[in-house]
Design brief:
The chain is an alpha/beta fold. It has 4 helices and 8 strands, in the order H-E-E-E-E-E-H-E-H-E-H-E. Helix 2 links the parallel strand 5 and strand 6. The chain is globular and about 40 Å long. The chain starts with 7 loop residues before the first helix and ends in a 9-residue tail after the last strand.
Amino acid sequence: MLRNTPSPLRSHTVKTLLAATVSCLLLGACATTSSVTTRTELVTLKGKPLTLEGAGVKVGQTAPDFTAVANDMTDKRLSDYRGKAVILSTVPSLETAVCDKETRTFNERASALGANVVVITVSMDLPMTQKKWCGAAGIDRIVTLSDYKQRDVGRMYGLRIRESGLLARA
C-alpha cells in the first residue's frame, strides 16, 4: 500500500500505473481479446478479396435471433416475426446503386408473397437514413433495419466486412 508521504519512486510508480490504466481504457488493450473467425475469398471489391468476420451460418441451422434498430428508432428482433416466413437480406448501404436496385426489386416482388411472408433488409445505414431512403423509393412492403447499434447481424451471421465495417450483401 502506498503511504501519503511522497517519494520519487512512489510518485513515478503511481504515474506509470495511471498512464498504463488510461492507455488500456482508451485503447482497449487491457480487455480480454477473443479470437474472431475470419473468412476471405467469399466477397470481393473490384477484384480484391475482403475479410468477413464471424463463422457465418450453415444450411439447416436455425437463424440466430438478433436485435436491430427500426426506422422509428425502436429495437426489433428477428423473433418478433416468429410464425411468419422471413426473407432476410443484408446490404452494405441502401444508398448505393446495386443495394438500391436489389431492395426495390424485393419490395416489388414482396406483394406477391402474401401476408404471411416478411422481407427484412438490414444495413449499417442509420435508421433516419433508411427512413428517408424508403420514403423516396416508395418502399412499403419490406422492413428495413439498421445494424449500426448492436451489430448483431454482422457478428451472428458472419457478414461484417472488416475493411469497411459494413455488412456484406447476402
